[in-house]
Amino acid sequence: MSGESAEPMVWTDERIEQLKELWAEGLTTGEIGKRLGVSKNAVVGKAHRLGLKGRPSPIKRTKAPRQTPAAPKEKEQKIRSVVDLSAHTCRWPIGDPREPGFHFCGAPTIANKPYCAEHAAIAYVGASSPKSPPPRDEDAA
DNA sequence: CCCTGATTCGC
DNA sequence: GCGAATCAGG
Asked: Is residue A76 included in any domain, yes or no?
């Protein structure tokens, strides 16, 4: 008949007291964790939150190694589209036109060529007739 | 390899 | 706020 609800793993004053007590005794997080039936992480986590300080283990971590590098935020797109090309911008295609991220070189061109110095050398490789600019792998579409 | 504690991140 | 995960040192 007792309306005893299941303990939702909540740190009650009692448990917190035990935690502080055992912690003050000099027990380690692992010991306290075993005593209270929680993981040492839970103990150290609660201890840290409670404001308890660990005298031992003056371990110092470098900086913020824990970072989520998976945060691709589109803030600025420096991709040159075909409409951004002018008479003095290299029209050398970068990547495959059918692929996303395809763009043009955009570097300053030389003479009256539609390409920059580097790409012009590739385009007009010694021959009288200009070769195909992009080294297409295959056009099996 | 075992332990310790500290910080960060997801729920 | 809680704890696991991760990191850092002994």
From this structure: no
Q: How confident is the model over A7-38, as pLDDT tens digits? A: 566 888 888 888 888 888 888 899 999 988 89
Residue A94 lies in a domain: yes
Residue A7 within any structural domain of the chain: no
Structural domain range at position A45: 13-50
pTM of the entire predicted model:
0.48
Residue A17's nearest CA partner among A46, A54, A53 is A46
Q: Within 4-33 of chain A, which residues have Cβ less than 7 Å from strand C?
A: 9-11
From the Cβ of A18, is strand B under 7 Å away? no
The C-alpha atoms of residue A75 and residue A22 are separated, in whole angstroms, by 51
Query: Which residue's CA is nearest to the C1' of nucleotide B9?
Result: A66
